[in-house]
């Protein structure tokens, strides 16, 4: 049995600069990853199958539309192999929540099956962008700057935050990434230089769709020790960096019952 972590993804900043010829949006973003997330496991088998467990498994299909199986099928085809796998997914992250759960799962499946099937890792890199614009970043799961659709990457040696205590909070309202992009107002607010000074341009359209995100952001900003607060991706998950573990844990204990939270660290 092989297993592979699928770390939660954060966009430390996300600037929407316009549209690409293919209709997607042109982004400038800084990705970072957490030490916690989902977990994908696999063992050799004939054919491909998937089972799931964990708090967010109920309601998530384990059929061909699951990104884990889509990744496996694409990789099988790209590598020209007839090897199969029995896959399992421990779904700890909320679905459609801006922290790349599905993208991280797909990327973890690509890394895992590359090892299990002993195939060239170049196949995983080749199919990743087809599975979603966040999948190439999740395949690396290291801090990176993304441009283009967010899938043209440049590794960042150290955005200076590895090991930071972070709290993720989600009001448990799923948000469709496509719908949030569709509500972006079309105004280019300028380039991304320093992520700390930057923005998440999807925050405003996401709050317009789910007003509770505004409450989560205000709640996080009011926590003692919260040093940096922003929404990730297309939402609705927001995150705060804390000065230390004890202020992070104190904030985690105070999260309202109806919200999901995860106390973690940056990788
Ligand atoms: C918002 C981010 O999470 C930031 O990292 C990503 O850009 C979204 O990545 P993702 O979930 O892998 O997204 P995809 O599955 O590729 O696309 C979901 C939806 O968002 C839109 N989309 C995505 C990326 C992009 N640069 N512009 C877009 O308009 C797509 O057209 C699609 O309607
Ligand atoms: N393994 C999976 N985990 C989560 N979602 C999946 C998975 N497979 C397919 N999906 C579908 O993909 C969609 C996006 O889910 P995901 O959790 O990746 O969104 P997200 O966290 O908003 O991602 P991003 O930050 O990359 O936009 C969901 O609507 C879900 O139905």
Automatic annotation (TrEMBL):
User: Does this UniProt record's set of keywords contain Transmembrane?
Assistant: no
Q: Which Pfam families match?
A: GHMP_kinases_C, GHMP_kinases_N
Which key words tag this protein in UniProt? ATP-binding, Isoprene biosynthesis, Kinase, Nucleotide-binding, Transferase
Record InterPro entries? GHMP_kinase_C_dom, GHMP_kinase_C_sf, GHMP_kinase_N_dom, IspE, Ribosomal_Su5_D2-typ_SF, Ribsml_uS5_D2-typ_fold_subgr
Q: Which GO molecular function terms does the record list?
A: 4-(cytidine 5'-diphospho)-2-C-methyl-D-erythritol kinase activity
Q: EC number(s)?
A: 2.7.1.148
**Pathway membership of this protein?**
Isoprenoid biosynthesis; isopentenyl diphosphate biosynthesis via DXP pathway; isopentenyl diphosphate from 1-deoxy-D-xylulose 5-phosphate: step 3/6
Q: Where is the GHMP kinase N-terminal domain?
A: 66-140
Locate the GHMP kinase C-terminal domain: which residues? 200-258
Which family, according to UniProt? Belongs to the GHMP kinase family. IspE subfamily.
UniProt-recorded name of the protein: 4-diphosphocytidyl-2-C-methyl-D-erythritol kinase
